[in-house]
Write a structure and sequence with these properties.
alpha/beta, six-stranded parallel β-sheet, 17% strand
């Protein structure tokens, strides 16, 4: 038996192992989250402006630059929104911070680079909307989208890889065509 994390990943592997016995042995078992840990009722949301959050590594494949471009466009419409980007340090982080500074939105976009996994539920509990602009189909499922959903935070994500199995479009959030920054803006505006 071979366990895979999504139908998307199963199809990907089946295309590699065409006409193989391996294909008959694959079973999809989705990642889950501990709903006792990822439970919004355990936390009190701080009072303040609408908060849009990003939680991924600061790498091109996760689209942090798209998040900043979306934030800039949203702030032109809704100047009181707050954006928080959490992720691990990477070589891309200075470029992302530079994008924020050049757009003069540094007073509305903040960064957390040392968030421990045990602090993720608290972080998500402070968000009103979770945006996941992952760019590549290497996103085989979208565990962070499931974590956000478990925290009752709606998700707006690019429709890539297995993310469409983690986000139920129109139910737990919205899916947007990859690269469609204006689509992200529109869906966040709806929420």
């Amino acid at each position: 038996l071979i366990i895979v994390s999504s139908r998307f990943f199963q199809n990907y592997l089946q295309n590699i192992f065409l006409n193989s016995e391996i294909n008959k042995k694959m079973k999809v078992v989705y990642f889950g989250v501990d709903t006792n840990t990822f439970d919004r009722t355990r936390f009190v949301k701080e009072k303040g402006p609408l908060t849009v959050v990003f939680l991924k590594h600061f790498l091109p494949k996760y689209g942090p630059d798209h998040f900043v471009l979306m934030a800039d466009r949203l702030l032109a419409r809704y100047p009181n929104i707050r954006f928080i980007m959490a992720g691990s340090m990477s070589l891309m982080l200075p470029d992302i911070k530079d994008m924020v500074t050049k757009r003069k939105i540094e007073n509305r976009v903040s960064f957390i680079t040392d968030l421990k996994h045990e602090d993720v539920p608290r972080f998500l509990s402070q968000g009103d909307i979770f945006v996941m602009p992952s760019m590549l189909d290497s996103e085989t499922f979208g565990v962070s989208a499931i974590e956000a959903s478990s925290m009752e935070v709606p998700v707006v994500a690019y429709n890539v890889g297995g993310v469409k199995e983690a986000v139920k479009d129109g139910l737990t959030g919205f899916l947007v065509k990859k690269g469609d920054i204006e689509g992200l803006v529109e869906k966040v505006s709806l929420l």
